[in-house]
Amino acid sequence: MQIVFSDIDGTFQEMGHPIPAINKEAIRALQDQGDHFVFVTGRGVALVQEMMRDEEIDCDVIFGNGAGMMLKGQEPVLTHTVPLETLARVIDILEAQQVFYFLHTDQGILSPEAHRYEAQFKASRTALIDELGDRGAMIADYKYNFFYHECIQHENVLAYMQTNPTIKVMKIELMEASDEKRATLRRLIQGADAAIFQSFVQTLEIVDPLATKGAAIRAFLETFPDAMSYGIGDGENDLAMFEAVDISIAVSNASEEIQAVCDRIVDSAESGGVGKFILGELIS
User: For the segment 77-104, what is each residue's pLDDT rounded down to a tens digit?
Assistant: First the structure.
């Protein structure tokens, strides 16, 4: 049996672009011959479900970078969430550093009041445009609109979570334009109770140490001990996935760090590198 684990953003789908048709064709072909395709993504399960419904894709999903799993035909299950004690420690650091953050929970995305971080949003937008051009402006505008108009905002996020302990936090995500400040945050936050890594431009994510792509893939593979496993990704949060699979594969738009450690490099996300690899090399 063959199992292909694939990241979504920047790998299966380029940000701001439609999913290449060849990628969807490849999933169907792989499943038709009895193999597995598994999304392994930092997205929350609701966003993945929406995408799969719109694109008519049906496969297993590891979501929240390993915080939960949703098998075909079954309800999603959260496995490793951020404990309240860890949440309190991290939020204290982020508030002291005046960094905008948001929580991916089983009841939506929560953040502090967006208007408190207007200067940070502007700096982030400038940095995104410098790095990504028009696509950076589009992403910045989307995020700005989301955090001001769609996100669940609270004046005191930690107090709200402490009075609602049944809410489960899959991950804490933050945006910070300054490279130096992100480095400081990594040093302050990384610990036995929290793993921190970069997932997109200017973006850091904090999760439970067991909520990594690597840990989730190893748990998944326990059911298929004889399977040949492939992991396809593009960013730092895919390094743990690469360590857990037999063959690690980077799309050509992946970061230099990822390309330096992978076993193979395939075509870019925008041009359907995932689908081309599967159809060209894994289909009988």
Answer: 999 999 999 999 999 999 999 999 999 9
Q: Give strand pairing partners of 63.
A: 68
CA angle 163, 112, 178 (to 5 degrees): 135
Across all residues in the chain, what is the average pLDDT? 94
Q: Concatenate the DSSP letters of all residues of the chain into one string.
A: -EEEEE-TBTTTB-TTSPPPHHHHHHHHHHHHTT-EEEEE-SS-HHHHHHHHHHHT---EEEETTTTEEE-TTS--EE-----HHHHHHHHHHHHHTT-EEEEEEBTEEEEE-GGGGHHHHHHHHHHHHHHHTHHHHHHHHHHHHHHHHTSEEESSHHHHHHH-TTPPEEEEEEE---HHHHHHHHHHH-BTTBEEEEEETTEEEEE-TT-SHHHHHHHHHTT-TT-EEEEEE-SGGGHHHHHHSSEEEEETTS-HHHHHH-SEEE--TTTTHHHHHIIIII--
- Residue 220, number of CB atoms within 10 A of its CB: 22
Domains annotated for the chain, with CATH where assigned, are 2-78+211-282 (3.40.50.1000), 84-207 (3.30.1240.10)
